[in-house]
DNA sequence: CTGAAAGCGCTTACAG
DNA sequence: CTGAAAGCGCTTACAG
């Protein structure tokens, strides 16, 4: 049997409530009493039972993180940072993978997962704003790194459009005119893919370069899909002098396929990505990309969610946070 | 207020216990009763309170996963698979990052983290067998992908030594004689690093190639460290014709550094890694490595841990599982 | 097959 | 500042 608060109370000669007060940093405790309780805790090696605390208080001090796939490098790095930011504030992060399946997202939103957490960081890939708003419940939810700009939701994201435009302009400044875009999603205009695609188009507009839909290839945001997408363009005989992967994984997959086929990067085709995952620096050639300020995203989304949970943030409408970005110009598109 | 079992019992006209029986798939319930309860559950939208269940039963249906850093690609892929394997069996995985810090490992082993989980998958980098055995507690613990081969512990791992030897023999068969090893750890002879290093040495022995300690460079298992380690060898003027990174991240970092310096891979220096992370296939040149059967490791470690938790595995001594491996010969060391 | 009672270990009003 | 009581929502013996 584990040591309980009752044991501590008995050992210290006080009531249960007094022990509870000490544990919860209640202000008005006589120093001597407090000391006696703390001594008893130390002596008995008492540790609070978190489950009992949760049952009574209704709080778990866990945050839910819903994303499609933890093995994607961007999400892995993000999850790692989020966990550290949460730990500093006394919270843990419980991760749920949705595999970009709608049912899984729905489950994370209202199933048992929700019960286990005091609030959610949510990266929806399938559900739209109305579907989410309809299942919202009363626990706080912060949209993460995603697209749904809706006054009903808190959102921590980056300047997807601006950053994509800046990257595209950089490619144009390097003399590229036919820039293929990999990773667009047909069904999604407001999502990250859509926002980045819009940024690309606006940069082309600004440069007076006509938009060619033949240069836009949809694919999932993985290395193998990026490779397949660029292979498709080549096999269809489509001419291009640059590739913009809507994330780094796509770009790295595409770059691999180009090199395999003997196409020189960046001499014949420049390649650029998005996310600045660690891998981008060490690719050969190293990958030009956009750094989305992941540290800031992690820090601010955790802070916002916990502020909501603990009632410090009380804005009726959603709070929108946009982190800054930085171009990382490297060998693949100098 | 959420719907409780009491509400369901009242609606169905049965006692609490009967509702509990239905929820827990107790065999002997009259079908009509069961149906009435299930109808009431559906009608009221009842969902069991997991916290209350945990408090009473002492089970959380969560598994703890302790590793150094979730953003390392191997761990990210492994965690993703473990979560899926656990989910299939009705368990969740709660991840704790130790940053390879001893205190953090100790905390995960006996702090509140332990309370939240029914069992642990543990990848210790600092603590040794005796330290762990001393803090073991009564909840099951499975050593994961690591070195501690001790009859007191359950262990799921791979054939580190054999695989490293096979890879080294492959390099030797390709004509390499001076094979640098990156990622050795001075303090660790039994760990993964030590086992892989031993495999390397035994393969050299077999080939009649003398072991040269100057070719062994210690470093952390990250890309930047692999790059720095190979840079160190080059700057010290040490001659080598192959690099064996003790994991893929090291090898990829080293390969990047070689290419930056105009050294041709594999013509001048062959490069090989260990883990077969997705990134290895898409590197340029693609990376020769060892596939450790991660799917098998994930599946078997989850199965073993849950068998322990649920009392199906009752061996008094530790159960040792070694997954198979496969050489992945690619461009960096054909 | 089903019920009434006890209790897991805390926190939360409510008194004083 | 501190105490006695109630109760969070379940499961677990124990009866019958």
Automatic annotation (TrEMBL), chains A, B:
Could you say which enzyme class this protein belongs to?
isomerase
- EC number(s) of the enzyme? 5.1.1.1
Per its UniProt record, what InterPro entries does this chain match? HTH_LacI (IPR000843), LacI/GalR-like_sensor (IPR046335), Lambda_DNA-bd_dom_sf (IPR010982), Peripla_BP_I (IPR028082)
State if Isomerase is listed as a keyword.
yes
Keywords, alphabetical: DNA-binding, Isomerase, Transcription, Transcription regulation
Q: Where is the HTH lacI-type domain?
A: 3-57
**A GO term for molecular function:** DNA-binding transcription factor activity
What protein name is recorded for this chain? Bacterial regulatory s, lacI family protein
Biological source species = Pseudarthrobacter siccitolerans
What is the phylogenetic placement of the source species in the record?
Answer: Bacteria, Bacillati, Actinomycetota, Actinomycetes, Micrococcales
